[in-house]
Amino acid sequence: MLPKVRDYMSMPVVVVSPSDSLAHARNLMLKHKINRLVVTDDERVVGILTSTDFLKVLRYPELARKAFDELLVRDIMNEDPIVVEENVNIVDVARIMLERGISTLPVVDNSKRLVGIVTKTDLTRAYADVGGGRVKVSEVMDRSPPTVTPFHSLYRIVEAIEEKPYYKVVVVDGEVPVGVIAKRDLVFLDTSRLTRDLKFVKRDALLPKGRTGGVRLYYVPLALDIMSSPPVTTTEKVDLAEAARIMVERGIGCLPVINEEGNLVGLVTKNEVIRVLASLL
């Protein structure tokens, strides 16, 4: 018998309202170490806000010009999300996620009251429990994941991270993976992690009204400033359920796949786990 949503859903749920600022929403995500918030209005589920949605702010100039405390949750949230009940089995939830291209489903009871949330991480944990012995990493991994070098700039990273639906980039030195950058690393960039001591240089410049003075010219972060390093890796022969277990236990969303020489040959993410889970009978 397949496990139900109630067996793996996360709770309690952290919520925001449509009128809350993105600064407040971002702080909640950082505080609780989560990547999504359920948006409620008068106790009704009206939206979902994920770390992926914050990339819209980076992508669109009309949003990027504004401060996070000037933007509201309703400006970028996903409206009218699909909800599921506690007794739905996890395979059906995986199929819904794949069909709709979503990573989160609010869970409601018979009275439509919010009682939990089920995410790709929850389903990955479920597959780690029930999927052993079915599929090897080599059968499902992405053999051409997006890559950047340690010295690619933030602009190239944003471009590369949107090439695949899992929003991950592998940082390589030659063919060897030396780090991973996920969407969360961009949305919640911690400048204290920047590897260079100098964050800016001072230069004389012409100021308004014909005055001159010193201005700060800030460096653009590079991949080596942002990446999580060293990456946790796996090999093609590993059981996918074991790879799923590692991702859940280490709190990561992907594993670069390496060969015997340590070179990158692919990437396995929670997306591949969900796809296999959705195929279970």
Report on the architecture of this protein.
- The chain has two domains: 5-130, CBS-domain, CATH 3.10.580; 137-187 and 224-269, CBS-domain (Roll).
- It contains 13 helices and 14 strands.
- It has helices spanning 5-8, 22-32, 51-59, 61-64, 73-76, 90-100, 120-130, 137-140, 154-161, 183-187, 223-226, 240-250, 270-278, and strands spanning 15-16, 36-41, 44-50, 78-79, 84-85, 104-108, 114-119, 147-148, 168-173, 176-182, 200-206, 212-218, 254-258, 264-269.
- A four-stranded mixed sheet has the order 1-2-3-4.
- The protein is flat.
Give the structure's gist in a few sentences.
By secondary structure, the protein is of the alpha/beta class.
Main attributes of the structure:
flat; 4-stranded mixed β-sheet; CBS domain; 14 strands; CBS-domain; single chain; 281 residues; CBS domain-containing protein; 3-stranded mixed β-sheet
> What portion of residues is helical?
25-40%
What is the CATH C-level name of the largest domain? Alpha Beta
Rg computed from alpha carbons, rounded to a whole number of angstroms: 21 Å
Mean of residue pLDDT values: 88
Number of strands: 14
What's the structural domain tally? Answer: 2
Net shape = flat
Largest sheet: spatial strand order: 1-2-3-4
CATH superfamily of the largest domain: CBS-domain
Content of β-strand: 15-25%
Largest sheet: 4 strands, mixed
Task: Give the N-terminus to C-terminus distance in angstroms.
Answer: 10 Å
- As for the CATH topology of the largest domain, it is CBS-domain
Order of helices and strands: HEHEEHHHEEHEEHHEHEEHEEHHEEH
